[in-house]
User: Fold this.
Amino acid sequence: MGQDHSNDNAHEPGHSHAHHHDHTEPPADPVLRVKALESLLVEKGLVDPAAIDAIVETYETKVGPRNGAKVVARAWSDPAFKKHLLEDATAAISSMGYIGRQGEHMKVVENTHERHNMVVCTLCSCYPWTVLGLPPVWYKSAPYRARAVSDPKGVLAEFGTELPKGTKIKVWDSTSEMRFLVLPLRPKGTAGWNAERLEQLVTRNSMIGVELALRPDQIPVKSGGKA
Amino acid sequence: MDKDPGSVLGQPTKSEEVPLTLCKGLPDLPRDEDGPVFAEPWQAQAFALAVRLCDQGHFTWAEWVENFSAEIKRAQAAGDPDLGNTYYDHWLAVLEKIITDKGILQTPDLLSRKEQWRQAYLSTPHGKAVEL
Assistant:
């Protein structure tokens, strides 16, 4: 499967080309293939359309990278939670209500002044969906998957990320069983900030490790004033 | 995120001080912002179908990943530059493969159903809901 099926063009009886102005242009091949899959699975009772819609909505709007940002912000502001997170990320993250899919384990890797961590999946695109939502396009691309390993400094430079001289870079390769989340360094100038405020500094890219957490002066201004 | 929408494909978004020579000779690294990760609705539906079937125990996520990485390797060998924009094409191909391999659905049924949908579009006046 997956090849072009356009040779298969048996026409339904009764269809006439005479009224071609009175039709809807069929969508592209993948759309039809997904419709075929979904309608057959629904008919067999294997899939409930509402459940599909719910999954789409969850990953599109509810998860995003915000779950991960909450985890990081809490680790920055709650030493006991941070200890738990670094020792057993799967349990610590579940304790916040973010439950993984198929029993994959989470490991949180902490950035320090000596070591910067970056996450990749060289095989395909394993990604910690539970905390980061769906992966960005570049994460899924072959150049990132190859160069994160062969040239991590170059990749960081493309993201505009410069590390202090002498910082070591450690690249973590995800698998179906193990997903990684980077715990970025807490930015300077945030003493006394609570978790909610700190959360604004945590970007998706900082949790993949291609960027640093935002400085307080980099917090994006939302419509309606400063967040 | 109101960043410059032009800052894609290998251009650093916020780094005046990064010498451009560093990026020369390197393959393009697709970039995006925190925006939607599905380019089209079918991609979201294909994603959700795989997640749902896995949740229901029709296959494990490890099986999915094994098939998925094999599909990506196959596509790369066939000349796909694999820049992330074909990710859901691979996803859909693997979904079809795993569903037919497991006997959940049969390939001929998928093909004829696809054709039924095509015909349904062709026989539905423009602007009306397309139904089988």
